[in-house]
Write a structure and sequence with these properties.
The chain has 405 residues and is α+β, with helices and mostly antiparallel strands. It is built from 6 helices and 20 strands. 15% of the residues are buried.
Length: 405
């Protein structure tokens, strides 16, 4: 009985406790706790996003400001250099084919590049300052119009610059030289140390110089030397002057204005290693091509300083190859015979491997190999192997075998 009464008392106590619990209130308390937790997570994420945004804003401001400052300094530097004629600045003027003032090109470049970076700077500032006042639509559209005009102006200048190279023209003069078969001709290049301390052929490289009369000139060492054999009994020299222009007549006029000289002193031929032209012609890829025609049987001795000037590919049909300098060379029919070379001087050694194919040419013969075929030619004969046929040619005859036999 006592156990029963105790159990009933406990049951009544639990029942009363459950009845006294405010379930809606407890549910709201749990919901409030959950909301506070996720709000805290959201606040943390937003904090880091804001910090990252501020960092991006600072980065945009630094980039925009750096470019703007650099452009402004560069524009004023170019403008000052153009006004006071700083040495070396003439190179820009010489290459200015469009004949547009340098200050105008600088100003257009400032607007074309600077305006986008100004807006980049403004965007970074707006990210950092929440209540930053807008510059207004009038200013925005004015800057956009200015940027658009600058872009169009630079395109027009670029097209005009390119048009100055639309045509090329040349003039050729050919003269006989008092050099005959069996004569020995010494060939060398003449350097003018007043114009340049550097020696050698350099295409598309030019500089502004002054002659002894203080005339302003454009100087370049774009000189190409070609040696060919001839059936004529007397040697000759052909000098081709080449230049570019916006039309043929202008290009030809520039070619005619090129100054180039050579001198034949007895049996020694001295070629200028450079050309000059009046500065008002501007630089338009002026170049000289000297072709020396020597009778068969002539002996040629080329100085070592000619090396860079006759570095030509096969299309020029130049019989004087690099490495033949400082040797006595006998002119043959479209060929040269070295009279004082050692046997090993002109050995050819070519070894090419490409995508499983091999091409090898040396003193031992010729070997050509691909995935399915190989050919070998040497002093023992000819061997050729394919997937199904093998050919062997030697002093014993011809042997042909196949997989079918």
């Amino acid at each position: 009985k006592k156990i029963k009464d105790g159990f009933e008392n406990v049951s009544q106590t639990v029942s009363d406790t459950v009845k006294n619990i405010d379930l809606p209130k407890q549910g709201n308390r749990i919901k409030s706790s959950s909301k506070s937790f996720f709000d805290s997570i959201g606040d943390i994420i937003m904090f880091f996003l804001k910090v990252f945004a501020k960092f991006i804003g600072i980065l945009l401001m630094i980039v925009g400001a750096s470019v703007l400052i650099g452009l402004i300094v560069a524009m004023f530097s170019v403008g000052v250099a153009d006004v006071i004629h700083i040495p070396g600045f003439d190179l820009i003027d010489s290459a200015n084919a469009a004949n547009v003032p340098i200050w105008l090109i600088s100003l257009l470049s400032l607007f074309a590049v600077g305006i986008p970076f100004f807006f980049l700077f403004y965007l970074g500032l707006k990210i950092l300052v929440n209540n930053l006042k807008s510059i207004g639509n009038i200013a925005k559209f004015s800057l956009f119009g200015l940027w658009l005009m600058a872009i169009i102006g630079l395109i027009v200048i670029g097209a005009r610059q390119a048009s100055e190279y639309n045509y090329d023209a040349s003039t050729i003069t050919k003269e006989q030289l008092n050099i005959r078969a069996n004569d020995t001709l010494r060939l060398s290049m003449n350097q003018n140390s007043t114009y340049s301390k550097h020696f050698g052929r350099h295409s598309e490289v030019f500089k502004t110089v002054y002659d002894e009369n203080d005339n302003k000139l454009i100087y370049t060492s774009d000189i190409r030397l070609i040696v060919k054999s001839t059936k004529d009994s007397v040697a000759s020299i052909a000098i081709e002057k080449n230049a570019h222009g916006k039309n043929y007549q202008e290009a030809k006029k520039r070619a005619q204005d090129i100054n180039y000289n050579y001198a034949l002193n007895g049996k020694s031929l001295l070629l200028d290693s450079y050309l000059t032209t009046p500065h008002n012609n501007k630089f338009r890829a002026q170049q000289i091509e000297v072709t020396l025609y020597l009778p068969e049987g002539t002996i040629l001795y080329a100085d070592e300083n000619t090396y860079s000037f006759h570095r030509n590919n096969d299309s020029y049909n130049d019989i004087l190859e690099n490495g033949m300098e400082e040797h006595y060379l006998q002119i043959l029919d479209e060929d040269i015979n070295c009279l004082d070379c050692e046997d090993d001087d002109f050995k050819m050694n070519i070894n090419i491997n490409n995508d499983g194919s091999e091409y090898k040419l040396d003193e031992n013969g010729l070997r050509i190999k691909s995935d399915s075929t190989s050919v070998e030619i040497n002093n023992k004969g000819v061997k050729s192997n394919s997937e199904s046929v093998r050919i062997n040619i030697d002093k014993n005859g011809i042997e042909i075998t196949s997989d079918d036999n």
